[in-house]
Amino acid sequence: MSRRILYGKNTPLSFQESLFFDTDCPYTVRYKELRNDDVAPLHYSSALEVLLCCDISGTVTIEERTIPVCGDAVVAIPPYAVHSVTLKQGEGRVYVVHVSLEELRAFMDIPFFLSRTGARLDGLCGVCPDFDGVRGCVMELIERDGDLFARMGALLRLAGILQRCADREENPSVGRRGEGSDRLKAVVTWASANFREKVSVADAAAVAGLSKNYFCSWFRRHAGTTWNDYLNDVRISNACRVLAKTGSVTRACQECGFADLSWFIQLFRKKRGRTPRQYVKSLEAT
Question: What domains are there in the chain, each with its CATH number?
């Protein structure tokens, strides 16, 4: 099977998503069916990311902007943009394209092409209304994986579509990531390393260098969610990983920062719409 075409869930393991590219594999296309809710808490990567959502409902938060997804949609996320993705269980599917612009330079220089049209890489952010055009590019990447010229042509057309769809006037803050973004990265990086421990709002506020009272409103404004909801999302996402690997509800509870098993089960059901045991059975059924 090609290294470029992947199937199944790939929730980031940490705040900084680790993706491996080289000249033979400067991009990946991952196909997912949503048999369960799919939640990727706040993270970022060095790659350009494109979500091709087919008959899906959910939300995508990029920096301080929350984008609702309903039905068929395309959402572009520029490199190093802090973002989270929540997609609801259903009959739909999603194609997640990651493109390493650095490795792709062996074939073409997308940032240079954009600069020649007066566009910025950071401007490739948000909803792209040309669903059919993007879908055609993604399908060609999959169906003609063995044809280098076809693959490179599809990537170039994809970049052109995103550039034409970019609304730089509507997103003036995109790409201007200052102190707030740096603080957010510091806080969430710390949380992803310490979610197994007993962490408090005061601890997180200290990492951000803010007062406890101000931190909560600051975090919600910059992250698009509350601190407690974010921490619970990180813990539940990691619990899903433990459940998929071991099938043990108790182990998932203990390894992901929950002190009480009944509270873990209750929260898991609230976040995923089923109990941990039902979640394990749904994985076994697939």
Answer: 5-165 (2.60.120.10), 179-285 (1.10.10.60)
